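Here is the promised in-class demo. Please do not try to memorize the tokens; focus on the logic of going from shape to residues.
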């Protein structure tokens, strides 16, 4: 692999898998990916599975991530968990601002920004999701929306904080739909995001930040998508629920 940035492929299990089912999947992945050192790999089970799956994967080459968190340190926030609680159950990273959270649970750039800062303060690596809807793309607003998400969600972060973040570009119209952005569409937006990051910091900082693509990534399209110069990995939903598919995505991306 000749990219300067190491690929980072994460599986977003969303609201799927009991603890036992998650452990079964984690067992297959730990076995089949044991020799992978040239790609960073993470799985993000639902909160209920984090402790046991994290314990099982601890010390392996597969990192654990959560799918969301709250920014405050403790207190009367029924239903929420904070960054320290995620660290306590083996998490190394956390997905923030996923389009499903923006769409169904009222996450905004402002709340994603607070969560990102709280995650960084706890040394939890954020995967910050950005991306346009079909309507926004068709009305020519892709760059405007992506700029709003990137600058809003990452507002006020210093260069040394930005390099700890992964951005996931996930066109909403490609998530769970079977429609994938073309390699050209993906590369165009990734290059645009990298330019935004350079404007927010400097070009050498921007060159160190990993930008994942997400949206119906499958074994069959992983190699081409992840071969693009500014595509540094993938956030995988549906295909990360099947060990064979997730392993094939990783191996195809490496080849
Ligand atoms: C996601 O949920 O982040 C995602 C990309 O889902 P899928 O791969 O199923 O499109």
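The designed amino acids, position by position:
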């Amino acid at each position: 692999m000749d990219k300067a940035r190491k690929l980072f492929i994460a599986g977003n299990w969303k609201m799927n898998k009991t603890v036992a089912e998650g452990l079964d999947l984690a067992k297959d992945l730990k076995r089949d990916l044991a020799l992978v050192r040239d790609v960073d790999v993470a799985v993000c089970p639902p909160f209920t599975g984090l402790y046991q799956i994290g314990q099982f994967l601890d010390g392996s080459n597969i990192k654990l991530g959560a799918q969301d968190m709250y920014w405050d340190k403790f207190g009367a926030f029924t239903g929420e968990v904070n960054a320290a609680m995620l660290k306590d159950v083996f998490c190394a990273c956390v997905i923030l601002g996923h389009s499903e959270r923006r769409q169904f649970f009222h996450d905004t750039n402002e709340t994603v920004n607070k969560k990102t800062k709280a995650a960084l303060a706890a040394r939890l690596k954020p995967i910050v999701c950005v991306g346009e809807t079909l309507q926004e793309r068709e009305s020519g607003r892709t760059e405007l929306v992506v700029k709003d998400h990137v600058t809003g969600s990452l507002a006020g972060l210093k260069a040394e904080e930005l390099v700890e973040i992964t951005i996931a570009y996930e066109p909403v119209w490609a998530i769970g739909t079977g429609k994938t952005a073309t390699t050209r569409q993906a590369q165009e937006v990734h290059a645009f995001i990298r330019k935004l990051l350079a404007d927010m910091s400097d070009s050498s900082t921007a060159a160190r930040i990993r930008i994942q693509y997400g949206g119906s990534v499958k074994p069959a399209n992983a190699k081409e998508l992840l071969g693009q110069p500014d595509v540094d990995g993938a956030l995988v939903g549906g295909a990360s629920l099947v060990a064979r598919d997730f392993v094939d995505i990783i191996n195809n991306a490496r080849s």
